[in-house]
User: Which sequence fits this backbone?
């Protein structure tokens, strides 16, 4: 099982404190040097919790382009890209370019989005977001896997050849996050990887979602073993941890992290992406030691 790190791309706390790019780079380099497998960033414009001031975000693909050059070994990608925010042809071109910058380490994470205030703020169609993703895949996948596309839909269209191509003939792996039946059908048909978030220890909710994916694969005639399964985990702030692992977060001590990671490995999960409540280089070191131990 691979263990990766989710970076804090958004403002945090009541004071809405951002992590600078240099801080994100320091965490990413620490993850790579200490043996973690991957780095990830969320894709949002902002997050507006009820009755609280909105929290801003850095733009994900710009940050990932810089981190592609700052690292040499780890996989990296968005967790996950909100597809309706961008033209699907542009997504394919940016993914292909990130493949080139990184020497073939990029993973294209895609989703339909879920935070309606972002859609409302900029005029994106919230109710049509899954349809937008479905048609976007008809543009993105042929461009990345075959180098060309000819598709005309209601929400997406493309008639072009992708040149020059990145280092991998079939392009980057496609990871899709989603849980509902229509999303599971898209994942079963189109994804190389499936992602579900956020957890501490494995839950029945996660197991139910995985069962839904298996059922969707059976419906479309796909071998579920050809889809990697990943999960996002939350690691508690050392100053606020209860000192125990639970369904919502893992404790930040090395022994409890080993226990929590081992539980996900026993579930047969291929990769976990860990989000730190208080991201520090020291906690990255602890996570990496736990990952090495399992």
Assistant:
């Amino acid at each position: 099982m691979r263990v990766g790190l989710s970076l804090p791309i958004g403002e945090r706390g009541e004071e809405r404190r951002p992590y600078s790019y240099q801080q994100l780079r320091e965490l990413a380099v620490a993850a790579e040097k200490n043996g973690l497998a991957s780095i990830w960033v969320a894709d949002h414009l902002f997050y507006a919790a009820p009755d609280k001031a909105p929290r801003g975000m850095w733009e994900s693909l710009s940050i990932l382009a810089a981190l592609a050059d700052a690292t040499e070994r780890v996989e990296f990608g968005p967790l996950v890209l909100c597809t309706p925010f961008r033209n699907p042809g542009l997504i394919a071109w940016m993914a292909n370019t990130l493949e080139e910058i990184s020497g073939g380490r990029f993973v294209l994470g895609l989703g339909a989005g879920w935070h309606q205030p972002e859609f409302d703020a900029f005029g994106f169609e919230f109710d049509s977001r899954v349809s937008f993703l479905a048609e976007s895949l008809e543009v993105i996948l042929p461009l990345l896997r075959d180098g060309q596309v000819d598709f005309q839909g209601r929400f997406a269209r493309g008639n072009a050849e992708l040149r020059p191509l990145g280092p991998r003939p079939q392009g980057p792996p496609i990871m899709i996050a989603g849980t509902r039946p229509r999303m599971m059908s898209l994942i079963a048909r189109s994804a190389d990887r499936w992602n579900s978030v956020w957890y501490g220890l494995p839950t029945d909710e996660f197991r139910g979602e995985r069962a839904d994916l298996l059922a969707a694969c059976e419906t479309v005639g796909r071998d579920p073993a050809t889809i990697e399964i990943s999960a996002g985990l939350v690691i508690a702030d050392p100053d606020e941890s209860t000192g125990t692992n639970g369904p919502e977060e893992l404790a930040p001590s090395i022994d409890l992290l080993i226990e929590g990671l081992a539980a996900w490995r026993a579930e047969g999960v291929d990769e976990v992406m860990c989000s730190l409540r208080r991201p520090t280089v020291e906690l990255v070191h602890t996570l990496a030691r736990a990952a090495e131990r399992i």
About this structure: Residues 2-127+172-293 form a domain with the TIM Barrel fold (CATH 3.20.20.30). The chain has one domain: 2-127+172-293. Residues 105 and 245 are 32 Å apart (CA to CA).
